[in-house]
Each structure stands twice: as structure tokens, then as C-alpha cells.
């Protein structure tokens, strides 16, 4: 699939100086900076104001904006996609930008997707991401100074407010998996948690996009016990894995984190399920590691596009229907 770009004109008040990205296809051919990513989002809102808006939902400890782009913002049913909770997972961010580009520029080709309001946070951890660009490519946490410690950062995917305190093993603040001094102690997880709560009733699908591992997880993460009504999430995850296998000959396993990986506490996946969202998934994309070449950005973007759009359609079909495992 190749993106074909066209333009229309509109006006929007934006804090961004539209200068760095002349060609919007840059967003799917190289890894953008934090500033360029925001510029790209606001450019889309400028050019497609009839269906695209950008909303600041929070601010990091270092003062960077946490932005969500809304596509088809008048639609009632919602799909929420979050990427880059872990700073080093650049391919998650670039795949989210690919999906944004395809929905905006070629959305008319997909009428089945236009019935959804797509709410996408391509860079959920901007402080951490910029740190990986400049200092440490394998940094994972955010960059908030930790109280009573000389360390920085919290694992954002362990800081959500469901079963956060179930982990009985103390995690040192210097550890990559440090889950914070309290649930929702971090501005990023708090902003996303608030978003999930606000839109839970009308959200048909939530996807937390990560790399790497070729897995699609459904709840629970914190226990091996079966989550209530998790059959819907499992059925949708299988659709995503099947289409990737069919189109790209890549094999994804489907299951819970507790069964396929390890018990995870305070994840966005479990929090999503706890607030009653229809289908909640944690998508671990690629099997090639945390670093991919820029000429592979489009390839992995296409893979994420195929899976997530198919899962959105399937999730919509089974709203309020339980499929037993």
C-alpha cells in the first residue's frame, strides 16, 4: 500500500511553526523528532479541519505536550490507539504515524473505517523519546525526577491504576521496570487513564502499541485467572494475527501477558479492561528488536495498519456480544 497525498485548505490556531515538514510523506519515511511530530499533527488539522483536530491532554514533567489527534471527530464510536509508552520503541510511534497518514489522506477509500472516531496518541512518552534520540537509544521509562532518589523515570506501562499495588516485590527506582511511587503518579499515564475513562462508554477498541515480540495480548496481565468478558478481546486479537499471517507471512501469538510473557501489574491493558472498554489489546509489533531501519518504517506501518483496522471492524461487529473461549 502506498500513500497518495492531496491537499485542501483550512485555518486553525496552532502553536506550531509550519516549516520543518514540507512533504508530509516524511512522516512515514524517517523517524521524526518530538517537535516534528507535533508539527505534522497540527499540519493535518490545518489541512483537513473538517475531520481532523488535535487536543492536548496533558503535559510531561519536562513541559512537553501529550497530544491526541482526532480523525473523523464527529463519529460516535471510538478507537483509541496509544504508541511509544516505552521510549525506545520507535517503530510503535512510526506505525501510529503511518496509520494517521493513511486515515487522513486516503480515508475515503475505507468507508468502513469512517464510522469511527480515531483517537491516536503517537508519542505518549515524549520526554523519554527525546532522551533516546540524544543520549541513550535503549532508555525505556519517562524522565520524571523521582522523589528521595537521584534517579529518573518510571515505566509508564506499569503505572496505571488497576492492580498497581498487586506486585509484592519492591522495584528499585533505578530499574527499567520501576512502576513509580504510586499508581498514576506520572503525568503521561494519568492523562491516558483520564482519556480512557472519559470515552469508555463509546470506545469499541483500545490498542496499546509496542515493540517488539510478535504478540497480541488481551487481559489479564496481572493474573493467570480469566478476565470477565475477555472472549471478545481474544476474538478480535485473533483477527489481527490472522491478517498479518495472511498478508505478510508473519506469525503472531495471541494470549494474555500472564500466560505468554509474565505477570504485569499496572498496565494500560488491564486498566482499559477495568473501566469497561469493549475490547482492550496490547500489540507487540515486529520481531527484529527495538531498532529498525528507516526504510522498514513503511513496511511495519502497513503491517500495523492491516491488523488494527481489521481488529477495529471486528470489534465493532461484536460490541456487547460475548464469544466464549
Automatic annotation (TrEMBL):
An example GO CC term for this entry is:
extracellular space
The residues annotated as the active site are 284
Biological process, per Gene Ontology: proteolysis
Q: What are the record keywords, sorted?
A: Carboxypeptidase, Hydrolase, Metal-binding, Metalloprotease, Protease, Signal, Zinc
Presence of the UniProt keyword tRNA-binding in the record: no
Names of the cofactor(s): Zn(2+)
Query: Does the keyword Hydrolase feature in the UniProt annotation?
Result: yes
One term of GO molecular function:
metallocarboxypeptidase activity
Q: What PANTHER family does the annotation carry?
A: FI02848P-RELATED (PTHR11705:SF140), PROTEASE FAMILY M14 CARBOXYPEPTIDASE A,B (PTHR11705)
Q: Which family does it belong to?
A: Belongs to the peptidase M14 family.
Could you identify this protein by its name? Peptidase M14 domain-containing protein
